Amino acid sequence: MTVAPPRAARHAPAARHRSRPRPTRRHPGTAASTRTLRLEIQAVRALAIAAVVVYHLFPDVLPGGYVGVDVFFVISGFLITAHIAKPLATGRFSFRVFYARRAWRLLPASMTTLFVTLLLTAVFVPRTLWKDFTEQIIASALYVENWALAANSVDYSALASDSSIVQHFWSLSTEEQFYAVWPLVLWGCAFLRYRRRRRSGVSLAPAIAVALGAVFVLSLASSIWETAHSPAAYFLTTTRAWEFAAGGLLWLGLQRVRIPDALAATMSWAGIALIVTTALRFDASTPFPSWTAIVPVVGVALVIAGGMPEPRWGPAVLFRLRTVQWLGDVSYSLYLWHWPLLVVMPFVLGRTTGEATPLWAKGVVLATALVLAHFSRRLIELPVIAFSTERMRAPRPRHRGILVLAVAGMLVVALPAAGMYGSVVREQSASATTGVTTSGGTLSSPACYGAAAMQPRADCPQVDADDITPTPVQAADDDFADEGGRGCQVAGDDTTVKGCEVGDPDGTVRLAIVGDSHAANYVPALELIAKAKHWSLTTYLHSGCPMTRALVTPSCDTWKADTLQRLQQERYDVVFVAALSRTPWPHGLVRHPDELTPAVRDSAAAAYATTWVRLQQAGSAVVALRDNPDPGIGGVSDVPSCVEQHGDGAACDVSEADSLLDDPVAQAARTTPGVTLIDSTAMFCTDGTCPAVIGGVVVYRQVQHVTQTYARSMAPFLEPEVTRAVDAATSR
What we know:
Layout: H1 39-57, H2 67-89, H3 95-124, H4 130-141, H5 145-152, H6 169-200, H7 204-229, H8 241-254, H9 261-281, H10 294-306, H11 316-319, H12 322-329, H13 331-349, H14 359-392, H15 399-429, E1 437-439, E2 442-444, H16 472-475, E3 489-490, E4 499-501, E5 510-515, H17 517-520, H18 523-533, E6 536-542, H19 554-570, E7 574-578, H20 598-617, E8 621-625, H21 631-634, H22 639-646, E9 654-655, H23 656-659, H24 664-671, E10 676-678, E11 689-690, E12 693-694, E13 697-698, E14 700-702, E15 705-706, H25 708-730
Parallel strand pairs: 3-6, 5-6, 5-7, 7-8, 8-10
Antiparallel strand pairs: 1-2, 4-6, 9-11, 12-13, 14-15
Helix pairs in contact: 1-2, 1-12, 1-13, 2-6, 2-8, 2-10, 3-4, 3-13, 3-14, 3-15, 4-5, 4-15, 5-6, 6-7, 7-8, 8-10, 9-10, 13-14, 18-25, 20-24
C-alpha cells in the first residue's frame, strides 16, 4: 500500500551543490545509495563505534565514549528522514516497503547475535543470572530493551558484574521505535500539506521542519528535566527523540545551503574535534543526555554538513582510508557482537564474580568481535541486503511475507529465552529448607546448619554443591521484601509510611524496626523471635533510607520525618535500628574501606544519635544492630553466582578486614547513653574470613544483602541478646 498525497508536490525541497558537480562529489544533504556518496557518514560511523567499543573495554581510557551512540542517532535521523521525505514528495512512499526494508536491513544480524548470545548464556552463564539475562534477551528481541532497562533504572555508565548480556540493545530498540514512528510523523506532514495546499500552497519542507522542530524542542526539554530527576532518562525514547530530529532538520537544511569548500573543511575538523573532546572529557558524572548531549550532536552535524571537502588540508583524505571505511561498514555488526562477548568472557574464564577482566582477555574480546563483525557483514548483512533489494524490485514484491519472517525471527529468539526464564522462576518458587524450630518459646536449629556452624567449638565440614540451601538460584531471590514482607519495604520516591506487623499482633510487648534494606536483613530473624516470645513487631522500611538526621534525598527525608513522628506517637517499647554501613550520610556512598575515615564515621554516627535521642525522649528504648560484612566491597559482588560456579569453597569468601566496615551505627550506639548494641559479626566472620556459605546456607543474595534463610538461622543465637534488651526496656 502506497500512502501519500495523490499529486506530486511542486514544492519538494531540491538539493543544491556547494560547487560544480563531480562524479564522486558529496553534495550536502543527499542520501544516495552509492558508496562514494557516503564516505563521510561511514567515517563518522567508524569514529562512533570506535568510541563506544573503547569505552566498554577500557572506560578509564575513554570515559565519555558513550557519546558514540548519540552520533548514530543523528546519522539515523539524517538518513531515514531523507529515505521517507523524498518518496513522500513524489507521492511514492509506501509504509510496507519502508518497514520491509528496515526489517531486512536490521533484523537478520541482530536476531543472529541474540540467538548466539542465548546459547552463550545457556553454556557459560551461571543459572543465577538466567532470569535477568533471558528477560533482557526477550526485551531485545522485541525491541523494547530500552524501556526494560529504564524500568529497572540501570546505570549504564560502567560495566558492572550484573550488566545484562544484551544491555547495548537499548540503543537499537530506541532506533527501531524511531523507525516505527518517524514515517507516521512525516506522512502526517505530507497529508497536512495536501489538505492545506489548495488554499495556501504550503510545501512539504516547511511542514516537516515545523514537526521536527517541535519534536526537537519538546524532547530536549524532556531530556534536560528527566536527566536531572531520574537515572532512567538515559534509555527513554522521549529523551532521545530530539537527536533523531536534529538529524532530520540537518537534512532539510542542507537541501538549500551552499557551503564553500574551505568552510566545509573547517566544519568537518571542528565536528571531529567536538566528538573526540566529549569522548575524552565526559564521564559517568556528566549529566547525560540532558543539554550536554548537544555537544556531540553538533559535532556529527558539522561533519555531515562538511561532506567531503576538496581542500587537501581537509579530513577527506582520512575519510577515504580503507580501514576507516571498513570500520564504518562493519559498525553495526561490531556494535552487536562486542558487548555480549565482553560480558560473557569472565564466565568463560571461570573468574569469581566481581573480578576485573584481564587485559589480555579484553584483547581477545576485541579481536573476536572484529572477526565476527567482518563475517557478519559479509555473510549476513550484505547477502540479505542484496536479496531484499532484488525482492523489492520484483513486479509483485511480497512485503507481508518479509514482515512475517521478521516476526518469526523474533520468536526463534524469544521462545527459547522464555523457556530458560521459566525454568528459573519455577526453581525460585520452590521453598528453601528452614531448619529453625520453636519449642517452649525457645528457638533452636540443627548443629552445623547456617549460623550454628559459627558457634564456638562447632566443627562443621563443607557441604556438596547439591546440598547447599537455598540453591544459588533461589538465594538470588531469597528476599524478605519480595516474599513475606511484600509491599512493606517502600522504595524510590515513595514517601508512604507503611507499618507492617510481622510478629504476634496480640503481643503486649511492642517492638519496631526501622531503616533501609539492611534493617530488612534482620527482619526474618526478629520475626521468628517475636513470634516465639509472643511479641508484636512492626517494620518501617524504605530502600536506601536510614533513620538519620542527615539529608539523603527529598523523598527519603520526607519519609524519615513522617516515620519518626509515627514512632514517637506509637511509643514502642523497643525500636531496632540498622543501616548500610557504606552510606554514612551526609557523606554518601563509600566505594573503598579507606573512604570511611574516622571523621566521616563520627559525623554519620552523630546524625544517627540525634534521631535516636528523640525516640528515647518519646519513651522507646533503642537497640542498634551492627551491619553485616559487605562482599561487594571485599571483591565478590554477586555471591549466588559465585557459589553457582565454585560451590562451598574459599573462592567466594572475602576478607573481614576488607568487607567489614567500621559501622557508624555501631559507633553511635557506643557513644549514645542508653542505646544497646547487638553485634552479629561472629555469625558472619571467623578467623579473619567471611564465608559465602555457612553451615550449608548461602549467606548473601544481592551484593551485601543477607538471604532470608541465613537470617532465620541466626535467630536462635540472636534470641538471648534480643531478649535481654527487651526485658531491660520493659522492666523500667
